UniProtKB/TrEMBL annotation:
Species whose genome carries this gene: Shewanella frigidimarina
Keywords: DNA-binding, Transcription, Transcription regulation
Gene3D superfamilies: 3.40.190.290, Winged helix-like DNA-binding domain superfamily/Winged helix DNA-binding domain (1.10.10.10)
Protein's recorded name: LysR family transcriptional regulator
Start and end residues of each HTH lysR-type domain: 1-58
Gene Ontology terms, MF aspect: DNA-binding transcription factor activity; sequence-specific DNA binding
Annotated family: Belongs to the LysR transcriptional regulatory family.
Length: 308
């Protein structure tokens, strides 16, 4: 019995399909089926009920899955402890990144990790849509709170960004300068829609306050909201660092300078119940050491109000 075949069995369970597991692992379906059969023969157990279009765990398969989750996690922790960071890292990691303005800061650190560990390969997926990390074989992710699709996540804050209101001089010439914060309700704002379907008709401010906004353009892209704001389509609620040079060059105007910025947070996330490979754990440690904002880990809850 090989630990690689047990890990393969986990991927089949988590995707619910031999074909999906094969696609995620970039293996022929026949290879996955053969390795699963070999595992069942070595255990002398039937792990799945096989039907024409679906497979379901047997009671023995369910028990084996739960027990081996802990076993593989313990094995990887032991390897990590005894190798003392000297083991050669191999394998393939899948990383999901919400397309934030600082995406290249994250990617450059991933590239540096790859340079230090040339025998591992990494797949980077950018998406504003929520993805089930376990089902899609995602090892770690960089996400804002509203994009978490699972409850059993460990999340560590790694990037913070101050959010402010901005508008182009052309828009302000046409629509006028909002003097008080409540004036923004009479202006056209660029609205942002998160993957959970929620459109921010209210945006969060500092000290847990909320401000109503309205507009005729909605997007799920921070970059597109930024470009639309520069083109005078309305007032944008955008990361301050993203707009810094435009403000310096007179292409954007920050509104309400006396209003304290709202701080949005990006989390480094991984599933709490699924074991993380030695390579995945080393990448996790590397990214936490390289990225500035760190606090103790937490399991995400639906009550956390974070927006960026």
């Amino acid at each position: 019995m090989k630990t690689e075949d047990i890990a393969l069995f986990h991927r089949i369970v988590e995707t619910g399909s031999i074909l999906e597991a094969a696609n995620l692992l970039n293996l022929p379906k026949s290879t996955v089926s053969r390795r699963l059969q070999s595992l069942e023969e070595s255990l002398n157990l039937k792990l799945f009920h096989r039907q024409s279009r679906a497979i379901t765990l047997t009671s023995a398969g369910s028990h084996f899955y739960e027990k081996t989750l802990v076993m593989l996690a313990d094995l990887d922790r032991t390897l990590s402890d005894i190798t003392d960071n000297k083991a050669e890292l191999t394998g393939h990691l899948r990383i999901l990144i919400f397309p934030i303005p600082q995406i290249m800061d994250i990617v450059s650190k991933i590239f540096a990790f790859m340079d230090e560990n040339p025998n591992c390969s990494i797949e980077i997926i950018t998406s504003t849509e929520p993805l089930d990390m376990v089902r899609n074989n995602i090892d770690i992710a960089f996400m804002v709170n509203e994009t978490f699709s699972e409850l059993d996540m460990v999340a560590k804050p790694v990037i913070s960004e101050d959010m402010c209101f901005f508008a182009s001089p052309e828009y302000l010439t046409k629509a006028g300068m909002p003097v008080t914060l409540s004036d923004i309700e009479q202006h056209n704002s660029i609205l942002f829609r998160f993957p959970n379907g929620k459109t921010f008709s209210e945006v969060p401010l500092a000290n847990d306050a909320m401000q109503a906004v309205k507009g005729n353009l909605c997007t799920n892209s921070i970059q597109l909201a930024y470009e639309a704001t520069k083109l005078g389509r309305g007032i944008g609620y955008l990361p301050q660092k993203l707009c810094h040079d435009d403000v310096e060059q007179g292409e954007l105007v920050r509104l309400f300078n006396d209003l304290a910025p709202y701080t949005g947070v990006v989390f480094l996330v991984y599933p709490s119940r699924r074991f993380l490979s030695l390579t995945g754990q080393r990448l996790l440690d590397y990214m936490l050491a390289q990225l500035p904002v760190q606090t103790s880990e937490k399991t995400t809850t639906t009550n956390t109000k974070v927006w960026i």
